[in-house]
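User: Hey, quick favor. My workstation is busy. Could you predict this chain's structure for me?
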Amino acid sequence: MAEISASNNNNYSSTSTSITDLNVDSLAHCANYLNIQDISNMAMTCKFFRNAAYSDSTWHRLFREKWPEHMLGQMPQGSLVRDAYLSRRAAVHRFSFVDPLVADFYTDARPFDHVLLGKNDIIFSQGSLVQLLKIDDFLNGKECLVSLRDHKARITCMRSFPIDDASFIRSEAQNDENVLITSSSDHSIRLWWKGSCFRCFRGHNGPVSALSDKLLGDKGSKVLASGGEDGTVRLWSLSSSGKRGQHALNATLHGHVKPIKLMTVAGHKTSLLISVATDSKIRVWDSTLASASRLSDIKLCGNSLCVGFSCWN
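Assistant: No problem, here it is.
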């Protein structure tokens, strides 16, 4: 019996199979069920496992899972998929990418005064002219430039707001559209939609020098704030009727004695407006109080002029 048992054990030992007896393709197939950390550990185990872990099929799967929109077919001839994965991962962590669209678009020799980037367009101003470059039309070789020429003097500020904040536009409006608002040295503020002037607001006794970066108020009662070289802050109702914006002026706020240069709406409370003028003072206004009362004043040190600011909270 002892001889028989020993013989069986010898037979068992001679027929046993280890994982190293698998071919590399079979092991690479098993690696397709592992995550990136397990594959890295596998590659550091031994040379045999490393060959399987470096298989293109394994890294193809990892690449597709991480960046499904990126085409591996764009790799240079002879590049390994693992190298492409690691190169792109390093680029992501460095925020280093090749621009998806590089194109020269020539206008006249004058510099741009203001530039805005929308969802599907680039908006820029030169003097009194506003131009919209439609990106999709440009890529498809169609007529892509829309010129807005209603202003009679230099554009001083441009803002873009979602269509659902402008409750006066109801027909043919889609939720992902934006309206453009511009101010000018011609004393006017114009609201643009679908390539034409939809509203014109007038009331400042001089050039309009600033617009608020956000709209004041809650949904359904949005108000635009503007500042002028006349030192006043004016609040405009965007729900006013009439093509020329009659009855749009809600309030005129006095307090600054020099031109207003910057305006912002508080992030934590959309009724609070902050304005900065060349009189070196910052003023805080609450649009919900009677006549939009001034809450406080802040005097900048010396005669310094604020060149930029933002209210985060």
